[in-house]
Every structure is written in structure tokens, then in C-alpha cells.
Amino acid sequence: MGIGNIFKAFQPKDKVFFVLFEEVASNLVKMSKEFHEGLIDFDLNDDTLLKKMSDYEHKMDDLTHEIFVQLGENFITPFDREDINYLASGLDDIADYIFSSAKYIFLYKTPEVKEFSEFSLLIHKSCVELQNAIHNLNGFKNPAEVKESCIKINSFENIADDVLSQALVKLFESNDPINIIKVKDVLEYLEIVTDKAEDVANTIENIVIKYA
Fold first, then answer.
1. For the chain, how many helices (H) and strands (E)?
2. For residues 82 and 56, what is the distance between their CA atoms, to the nearest angstrom?
3. Residue 127: alpha-carbon gap to chain centroid
4. Which fold has domain 13-211?
5. In 11-135, where do the E strands start and end?
6. What are phi and psi of 163, to 5 degrees?
7. Where are the domains of the chain?
8. Which of 44, 180, 189, 196 has minimal Cβ neighbours within 10 Å of its Cβ?
9. What is the widest separation between alpha-carbon atoms in the chain?
């Protein structure tokens, strides 16, 4: 039995979920930070960023799978099983779309677009607030801080909507159909990441309303 499994064995069964969720949130913060930093200094001929995002995405899949395993094995949970399912799936979606964004930026060989890094910064800020929200959700010890983080995530999503609108207006003025198609796809994938973060924030807010 590995150290991680030994640790889990001595945890109260409902606490295992928060251990896993905090690990998921930490992974998302690291992933989004590397994604943002990678886009600031992006090389179309270097697939290092894509490989890193793939590694993070696989790790997120493993963590999500472990949450579902624990959900199947444990009768006692810290909140509704359905909410655990929504929260785990929503967090995994964020990682999936970050990876997809990185993949299409690389595969399309898209030119440098400043809005990409604007989106990635909003994504990273959203992931940091998700980490804060999940930390404060543990034991429902600080519902006010949870709600504050959720409000910030919603505001980041609103800013992302504006970034997308302005970027598309500028993009369509380029009169380059192929480039428009490629860049528009990437911009929309990036915007979806902020949508997914907002979805998770809404799930967390609903949990707080039920239990705090």
C-alpha cells in the first residue's frame, strides 16, 4: 500500500473527498499557470507546452476517476453524491478544455494573438479562486469566503465574454478566411474554459446554500 493509500485509510471516509478535491484544485492551478506562462512565450514549432498540458489532463482524469471510485465505495459523503459528481465532472471539464485549447493552438499553427494570453490569465485567476473556494468549503468552515471566490469567478467569466467579442470584431476585419476560422476556434475554446469555471462556481454555491 502506497503512502497516499495509507493516508486515505486513516482519513474519516467523508474527508477523503476533500483531500481529493483539494488535490484536483491544486493541479488545475499549476496547469493553468503553466498554460498562461507558455502562451506568453509560445513557439509554434515547440510542442513542450502541449505535452505538459496533456500530462496535466491525464493526471486530472486519474484524480476524477479516484473520486468516482470513492463515491462507489463510501456510503458517507460530505454532501450529496449528485453534487460530488457535478463538482468532479466540472473540474475535469476545465482541464479538458485547457488541453484542447493548447492542442488547437499548436495544431492550427495559429499566429500570436494577444487575446490568447488575456484568456489564459483569466483562466488562471479562475482556477486560483476555485482552489480557495474548495479549501474554504472543507467542513463548511468559511461560507462567506466561498461565496466571495464564486463571485470573482463569475466576474472573470463576464470579462472573458467581452474579450471574446472584441477579439472577434478585430479578427473579422483581417479578411483572411483561413486565419479567421483557426483563431475563432481557439478563442471559443478558451472562452469555454471560463464558462466551465463559472459552472463549477455555481455548483459550489449551490452546495453552500444547501449545507452551510
1. 7, 0
2. 25
3. 6
4. Methane Monooxygenase Hydroxylase; Chain G, domain 1 (1.20.58)
5. none
6. -60, -45
7. 13-211
8. 44
9. 62
Cβ(73)–Cβ(98) below 8 Å: no
* Residue pLDDT, tens place only, 129-180: 999 999 999 888 889 999 999 999 999 999 999 999 999 999 999 888 999 9
Say what the pLDDT of residue 78 is.
87
What does the block give as the cell for 113? 494573438
Work out the end-to-end distance of the chain between its first and last CA atoms, rounded to an integer number of angstroms. Answer: 35
What is the dihedral angle through the alpha carbons of 26, 27, 29, 35, rounded to the nearest 10 degrees? 170
pLDDT digits (tens, 9 = 90+) for 40-75: 888 888 899 999 999 999 999 999 999 999 998 887
As a whole number of angstroms, the distance between CA 181 and CA 211 comes to 45
89: burial class by Cβ within 10 Å (0-12, 13-18, 19+)?
middle
* Rounded Cα–Cα distance for residues 182 and 1 (Å): 48
3-state secondary structure of 42: coil
Residue 139: enclosing H or E segment and its boundaries?
none
Residues 6+ apart with CB under 8 A from 134: 18, 21, 22, 24, 25, 204
Say how many residues make up the chain. 212
DSSP letter for 138, please. G
SS3 label, residue 103: helix
Amino acid at 130: L
